[in-house]
Design goal:
Blueprint (H helix, E strand, L loop, with lengths): L15 H10 L4 E4 L10 E7 L4 E7 L2 E3 L1 H8 L4 E2 L2 H9 L17 E4 L7 E5 L5 E6 H8 L4 E3 L2 E3 L13 H15 L16 H10 L6 H9 L2 H12 L12 H9 L1 H16 L13 H18 L8 H9 L3 H9 L1 H13 L5 H9 L3 H11 L4 H8 L11 H15 L13 H7 L3 H13 L1 H14 L1
Parallel strand pairs: 3-6, 6-9
Antiparallel strand pairs: 1-8, 2-3, 2-5, 4-10, 7-8
């Protein structure tokens, strides 16, 4: 995509406080509309970190991942992202929507990655969404960075090799990652083996019913009723405003026959049984979408997307919904397998909002949540479609076996992420992904819109999962 500088009369203007500051400092700049084609190495990522000593502004190019360990070595300080509420108050005083990479705007000291200045011109957030400031690097360094310190603390994303196409290596890489952290002795010693709990008995029974062509409503009712918590959950789902069931739900069988249906109960119950296997971690990244809320939203969007696929090419709807429900299961597995280091992953997500979590996990652990969750699905003898969906959900161009399942999760996750639900930056969805699924962009947007319109009811469903965990 070609960069086009806007004519002065057509260019949106930066906020008044920014234009006045740059005018006062004598900084020449032009404005550009933000779009996905702009090179990441020219874009200035600004993040405000703090500890008990105070705040510090960190600047680095968006083609890098901010390494908090390296930053701690350089500064001797254990820095973390400023709380979102505090940052919002600071920006709100100047009517700014985001943090511009302009050190004179804050009273905090500034540290920047020296590779930021390797480009002739830099693109800086203006504080107005969608509007960037283009400033010559020489001017940026001489005027805006004249009191800042330079160092090298970013990790180029191009050097972080994520295993996208070698699923047979997953087990070896998981074991290697665990052993590597054992050797480093970060915080505490990790066990040299992967300790994963066995598949819950209820989940085992449900899986058998999923593959039994003769299974009946009586069979699933019997399984659900042997687990009081699950039985209460199913009745609560059926009574939820999201399903708008007429009359009162009086029993598990009533909930299945009259409202939810066999397939939906099978997959909701299986998702809950697996979710309860691993506890929700107490720590999480700031501003993260709660685990079950993200899971329920993704399952609901995939449900709508699956219906939009032409019937002749439509994958199994129950499995696609389950893939959406469990798409972020690797988040729970990482917290279980790498407990001393999970907080470090969270802190890195907070200061690297411009990259997807898999880059952070690959950099810190040598393994991603997608690899470890897909391996676990196979370890538990779950359907292969599910393992593929979890493993390749970040690859919009995946065309291997069972591609529809991975493609659906990829599309749903990115659509929700572009509406502020989930973790990671907003990204342009390639047209080839829609074409691979046989879905028009309009039909996909329509499926998403229906889910967003039912936001309150879906939040209630997610709250029920949280209380049951």
């Amino acid at each position: 995509m070609t960069e086009v500088a806007l004519a002065p009369d057509a260019a949106p203007q930066p906020p008044a406080v920014i234009s006045q500051l740059l005018e006062k400092l004598g900084v020449a700049y032009s404005t550009r509309l933000d779009h996905n084609g702009l090179p990441a190495q020219r874009r200035v990522q600004a993040v405000l970190l703090e500890d008990e000593v105070g705040a510090i502004l960190i600047l680095y190019p968006q083609d890098q991942l901010l390494d908090l360990n390296r930053l701690a070595e350089l500064t001797g300080r254990k820095l973390a992202a400023v709380k979102p509420e505090r940052l919002e108050r600071m920006l709100g005083k100047h009517n700014l929507a985001n943090l511009p990479g302009l050190p004179p705007l804050t009273s905090s000291p500034c540290l920047y990655d020296e590779r930021l200045l390797q480009n002739e011109h830099l693109l800086v957030e203006s504080g107005e969404p969608g509007v960037l400031l283009e400033i010559a690097s020489e001017t940026y360094k001489g005027v805006l960075l004249n009191k800042a310190s330079a160092a090298r603390f970013g990790q180029p994303l191009a050097q972080i090799r994520i295993n996208l196409d070698r699923p047979d290596d997953d087990r070896a890489e998981i074991t290697q990652a665990v052993q590597a952290f054992t050797a480093r002795r970060i915080q505490q010693r990790l066990e040299e083996t992967i300790e994963i709990p066995p598949l819950p008995e209820t989940a085992q029974k449900i899986i058998k019913l999923r593959v039994d062509p003769g299974a009946t409503v009586d069979d699933i009712t019997g399984v659900v009723e042997t687990d009081p918590a699950l039985a209460a959950q199913v009745v609560s789902w059926a009574a939820s405003p999201y399903y708008a069931a007429p009359g009162k739900i009086r029993s598990v069988e009533d909930a299945i026959v009259r409202v939810l249906g066999f397939d939906l109960v099978i997959n909701l119950a299986l998702g809950l049984a697996l979710g309860k296997t691993l506890s929700l971690p107490k720590d999480q990244p700031q501003q993260a979408t709660p685990y079950w809320q993200q899971a329920i939203y993704t399952g609901a969007v995939i449900e709508g997307l699956t219906r939009a696929i032409p019937r002749a090419h439509r994958p199994e709807s129950g499995l696609t919904y389950l893939a959406g429900l469990l798409h972020n299961f690797g988040y729970l597995v990482l917290a279980h397998v790498f407990p001393p280091h999970f907080s470090l992953i969270c802190r890195h997500q907070e200061v690297n909002p411009h990259v997807t979590p898999n880059y952070i996990e690959q950099h810190l652990l040598g393994i991603t949540r997608e690899q470890i969750s897909a391996w676990l699905m196979r370890f538990w003898d779950m359907p292969e479609e599910l393992a593929v969906a979890l493993r390749y959900q970040n690859d919009p161009h995946y065309q291997g076996p069972q591609a529809a399942y991975a493609n659906l999760v990829c599309l749903a996750v990115n659509m929700l992420r572009n509406h502020g639900i989930g973790s990671g930056p907003r990204q342009e969805i390639p047209e080839t992904l829609y074409e691979a699924l046989g879905i028009s962009r309009e039909k996909a947007d329509e499926a998403l819109s229906k889910v967003l319109q039912a936001e309150a009811a879906l939040r209630d469903l997610a709250a029920q999962f949280n209380s049951a965990n």
